[in-house]
Amino acid sequence: MEPTFYIAGGVAIVSTIVMLTRLNLVHALLHLIVSLLAVAVDFFVLGAPFAAALEAIVYAGAIMVLFLFVVMMLNIGRHAAEMERQWLTPGIWTGPVILASTLIVEVVYLARVASADLGTGATGPKEVGIALFGPYIIGVELASMLLLAGLVGAYHLGFRKTEKPEIQHDTGTHEGRADTGGDLVFAGTDQSARAT
Amino acid sequence: MFSLGLTSLLVRRNLIFVLMSLEVMLNAAGLAFVVGGSRWHQADGQVMFVFILAMAAAEVAVGLALVLQIYHRFRSLDVDALSEMRG
Predict the structure, then answer these.
(1) Which of A48, A66, A95, B43 is an S-S bond match for A127, by CB 3.0 to 4.6 Å?
(2) Neighbours of A121 (CB within 10 A)
(3) C-alpha distance from B87 to closest chain A C-alpha (Å)
(4) Which residues share a beta bridge with B78?
């Protein structure tokens, strides 16, 4: 149990250092995903499987996909072709692949060998839920309000961002402007689908 | 890990890297909470980790929307380019 924790922590620190020294954004994101997964394995070793699942799903799933979307949206116009050609060379993937395969070996080892060892000091999702909705209920309400504020703020900022290309498209062609003149509601729904 | 994120926050001048180092710092704080919670066999550490997770999600959503708008307005992700912003 001890060496697995330190191995996963070492993987997390190494991938974070590599992430900070990359110049390419996508490579840095790849290393950051590996780092988050290593922290998730650390949580699992520590006896917090609920936190490990949340880390893998929310951080490495949702937040990193958000980052990837933004990076892809920013990279569109500049030099997408030669960057694509660079991404296809296999030498770039070796670092994250080595780190991630270390994590995979560790998870397999944990699932096979040390799963009985983990059951002793584990804090399951049941205790977390009881503590969350017992003495921490005001924190849950505050977190929900924060998430709502974040949703509204991100929607507002993204909405004003997508206004500009719409206007350019309208002034570009006369018929398009005549068509979308009364169609503001429809344009708003289209942008909301893009913003979320 | 927290110091790594802080160092990167100070060193890098790209807005997306600033956001990513913020992620690393929040992650390190959550890791510390979970380690403490598992040390004393309490569920409070994981509760705090859930709160940190929710806060990080909201912060990243707003931050990335801001980054998109800044990029569309300034055509750059340089933090120093934004310091000339007046009115």
Answers:
(1) B43
(2) 13
(3) 18
(4) B14
Question: Tokens 């570009």 appear where?
Answer: A172
Question: Is the CB of B50 less than 8 angstroms away from the CB of A131?
Answer: no
Closest to B48 (Cα-Cα) out of A36, A48, A41: A48
What does the DSSP assignment read for chain A? -HHHHHHHHHHHHHHHHHHHH-SSHHHHHHHHHHHHHHHHHHHHHTT-HHHHHHIIIIIIIIIHHHHHHHHHHHHSSSSHHHHHHHHTSGGGGHHHHHHHHHHHHHHHHHHHTTHHHHTSS---HHHHHHHHHTTTHHHHHHHHHHHHHHHHHHHHHHHHHTHHHHHHHHHH-HHHHHHGGG-HHHHHHHHHHHH-
Which one of A17, A39, A140, A194 makes the best mutation probe of the B interface by having the most chain B beta carbons within 10 Å? A39
Q: Quote the Cα angle for A66-A70-A71, to 5°.
A: 115
Rounded mean pLDDT of chain A? Answer: 70
Count of pairs with CB atoms under 8 A, one residue in A, one in B: 150
User: Is the torsion defined by CA of A11, A13, A15, A18 positive or negative?
Assistant: negative
pLDDT digits (tens, 9 = 90+) for A67-117: 777 777 776 555 555 665 666 566 666 777 777 777 787 777 777 775 555
Confidence (pTM): 0.68
Give whole-number Cα distances, A148 to A62, A129, A171, B77, in Å. Answer: 17, 21, 35, 27
Kindly give, in sequence order, each residue whose CB lies less than 8 Å from that of residue B80, ignoring residues fewer than 6 positions away: B13
Question: How many CA atoms, within 13 angstroms, populate the side-chain half-sphere of residue A127?
Answer: 16
Are residues A33 and A21 in contact, defined by beta-carbon separation less than 8 angstroms? no
Average pLDDT over residues A6-10: 77
Q: Is the ipTM of this complex over 0.90?
A: no
